[in-house]
Amino acid sequence: MSSSIASSSSSSSSSSKKEKKISLKTSDGEVFEVEEPVAMQLEIVRSFFADNEDVTEQTVMPLPNVSTAAMHGILEYCRAHEEFRRRMPEAAPEEEVRAFEAGYVDRKSNEELKEMILAANYLNISKLLDFLTGVAAKRIENKSVEYVRAFFGVENDFTPEEEANLRREYEWAFEGVDED
Amino acid sequence: MGSIEEESQPSFKKKKIEPEQGWSDRPRDFVRLILGKLPWSERLRVSLVCKTWKECFHEIQNTQEFLPWLMSYRWHATDDGRVDSICKLADPFEQKCYTVEEATKGADQRGIFVGAEPCASSHGWVLLSKATSGVKHLFLYSPFTDEVIRFPELVTGFKDKASFSLNPTSSDCVVIALSIQEHEKLEIKTCHPGDESWKSFEFSGEYYFICDVGYADGSFYVTFSNGKLGAFNIKQQEWKLLWDLRSEPSPNSPPPVHEDTYIYLVAAFNGDIILSCCRSVCLPCASYRFDLSKGKRVIVEREAMEKQVIFRGCTSFSAFSVPAEGNARESAGKINYFYYNTNTPWSIYCNCIDSRRYQRPCKGYEWMEKDDLRRIWIQPPFQRIMRASDLLQSGSKPNSEDKSS
């Protein structure tokens, strides 16, 4: 799906004139050539190019906090949204966006999701970050505290007594939680 | 920034990048983003993940959940002197029912609950009152933390009412008990959690039956059956008669209030005190706001009513409103109340404020199963969960004004 969106967007633009591409280098050294409007959805990229007059088209912008795998996921999302914007500049086709987003996250494992949240945060793509944190929230809904700790790899820093007390305080909230 | 050509990535070096950052030391923004997308009840549970998450829990502003929850309960004495206790919480946002308690308990723990009547509820706490042979026991109960705070016994007449003050973010709490004494005098008693005795005040004047008591912004407002409205300022410990509808100058006043009208108070979410005048529980009400600065009754504009949803209690009329936002948006301008009939005890009804037409059940509560449990509204402590120890601590703080008086 990602490749079809990418190719459709590049083919539609290639008919007009050569589209400006921006080179982004991930932590593991891979360079992505990204269509400018897609790359500009990454706030960190947009502000880099806006703040630095000296950068040229040849400048390769390093993104040391983003892995190649996360970058693929992020570009898939940004390209799809760019495509929606191109087709319907006034109002996004809500149902289509929802369908895309649902399919998009379904294919992501929890690990991938977490990596992408970190990447989206670093790249400062607020729309994607908002969307992904919503997905993470959905995935931990009705789950036990232990599950959530394991999900995010967060260490429990309560003492056993503190935790037992807190659990007793609002016992009702622990009712009917899914099995881990 | 001209150094870009000499140095390949100058602007990135300024931003401290730590590629090894894990999820444990994530910036709080992150945790807040995720927690903020969970329903309050989920957020509460998940706040136990670690200390940072717990702190973030308190920083999240509620933007979706405004409809109050329901507390359903039944406390029955068993033949062997114990108490069958059922207490449930129903969450209209998650459409989920939680069991706080369903057990047989000792009379030492739950005996006081048998036959107790709810007087008021606020930010997760309910004031209950139980009368036994001329003595009144008032106590606060929080189903959210399953805690009880008892107050000293009171000897009061039957024309009495009680309420309490609690704000969303402060644990300052005062319980007030009002009664009419001989010669139509008003007696006010106050007590902080943890106090060993009640403080008494007496105010003369023609006070008949007490209609309603409501708390707003540092004062308890009280309406009387003979059309009076007064306020007791907690800090100053002063009683002030604010308004007497019988003596109201008529030309510029809103339509007069009928003599047999019941005036109940709505503590509006924006701090207003709304006087709702109705002649029967099911009839539409006329709503007035008491303008404190001008000292007069003004009609509440329809627009203002449309911005809120009113919830009226079950035994006393005492009511409160929530903003018509989030999950309360669809109930804008409606008034929700309980109505008892034998087939469907304690059903929730929902009226438009100015119409007789009612809808049942109202939005947000239609999923609830029928049962014969008693129900009351309870606003969850969305901003801060106040425990008994918090309330007791604030009560034990010596008040310098108290000592001088």
TrEMBL record, chain A:
Pfam family, one: Skp1
Region called Disordered, residue ranges: 1-26
Keyword Cell cycle: no
SUPFAM superfamilies: POZ domain (SSF54695), Skp1 dimerisation domain-like (SSF81382)
Biased composition annotated in UniProt, kind: Low complexity: 1-15
Domain SKP1 component dimerisation per the UniProt entry, residue ranges: 127-173
Pathway assignment: Protein modification; protein ubiquitination
Claim: Protease is one of the keywords in the record: no
Gene3D superfamilies, sorted: Potassium Channel Kv1.1, Chain A
Domain SKP1 component POZ intervals: 20-82
Keywords, sorted A to Z: Ubl conjugation pathway
UniProt cross-references to InterPro entries, sorted A to Z: SKP1 (IPR016897), SKP1-like (IPR001232), SKP1-like_dim_sf (IPR036296), SKP1/BTB/POZ_sf (IPR011333), Skp1_comp_dimer (IPR016072), Skp1_comp_POZ (IPR016073)
SMART domains membership: Skp1 (SM00512)
The organism's place on the tree of life at top rank: Eukaryota
PANTHER family: SKP1
Function in brief: Involved in ubiquitination and subsequent proteasomal degradation of target proteins. Together with CUL1, RBX1 and a F-box protein, it forms a SCF E3 ubiquitin ligase complex. The functional specificity of this complex depends on the type of F-box protein. In the SCF complex, it serves as an adapter that links the F-box protein to CUL1.
Self-association and partners: Part of a SCF (SKP1-cullin-F-box) protein ligase complex.
Family statement: Belongs to the SKP1 family.
Protein name, UniProt field: SKP1-like protein
Automatic annotation (TrEMBL), chain B:
Superkingdom of origin: Eukaryota
Record InterPro entries: F-box-like_dom_sf, F-box_BR-signaling, F-box_dom, KIB1-4_b-propeller
Residues annotated as domain F-box: 27-57
Residue ranges, annotated region (Disordered): 1-23
Residue span, KIB1-4 beta-propeller domain: 112-324
Protein's recorded name: F-box domain-containing protein
Organism of derivation: Xanthoceras sorbifolium
